[in-house]
Write a structure and sequence with these properties.
Undecaprenyl pyrophosphate synthetase; alpha/beta; binds 3-methylbut-3-enyl trihydrogen diphosphate; globular; binds magnesium ion; 38% helix
Length: 274
Amino acid sequence: MAMFTSSTCDIPATVAVPRHVAIIMDGNGRWARKRFLPRFAGHRRGVETVRDAVKYCLARGIDYLTLFAFSSENWRRPEEEVSLLMQLFMRALQQEVSKLDSNGVRLKIVGDLSRFDSALQSLILAAEQQTAGNDKLTLTLAANYGGRWDILQAANRLALARPDTLGAWSEADLTPYLAMSYAPEPDLFIRTGGEQRISNFLLWQLAYAELYFTDTLWPEFDAAAFADAISSYQQRERRFGRTSEQLIAPPRPAASSRLPAGSPAGASDAKINA
Ligand code: IPE
Ligand code: IPE
Ligand code: MG
């Protein structure tokens, strides 16, 4: 299993198409209300948008798509909405997994799954097992996920595994214990629905992601809207602490992306060539 250390230590190679896109799918409720429909109709419509987003990523060669489906704070919603969301999640897993599998999608679910009922937990496990060998796209659904929960569970597991090293941990010691240690950090973060906040999503992993906010509501986030987000990403200059001048300098023959702290950067790979 490949491990990736934090982008605050390593400068990842950046390419025109982001390798990893993470999305807060927000605005389902407002989409429904605009149409005088119950909020749940928006969630149902949102599942269709997920299908389209997966298709888009497969077509564009995006390797990792991570979707925030249910946050650790969403339990605060009315009981009926929470229960309908759980049913929708179960049904989507039952109906979509074989299609995802035949399209080469590996499905992962991250979050504190212990709070879900056992039928849902078994479905999650089965879906992950069925698709474990696929490598076209890794689709991660964050469910009962919180960025603080993730950092804390990683620290606790590291403390149990390596009590001898307490007090001397590096980023690279912690990251293998994060829920998404199988993926590089997101290159592009998208939030639909107009709010400009992270809402306790991937706090650690978004340290150097490019952030993109759009007013488009999630049920209306179609391929053209996704393409706009990618275009915006392609216009960014990802400096990772360096200067613009350093990015346009020709790469040195022995340049490495692994930089000891404080050393000057020679690699030109952070320039995104659209
Ligand atoms: C996001 O849409 C979906 C979930 C949080 C499950 P919302 O339900 O938050 O939609 P708005 O923000 O109320 O429009
Ligand atoms: C964030 O959306 C969580 C998901 C999309 C699953 P919310 O709509 O719950 O976020 P806040 O609470 O308004 O920030
Ligand atoms: Mg919302």
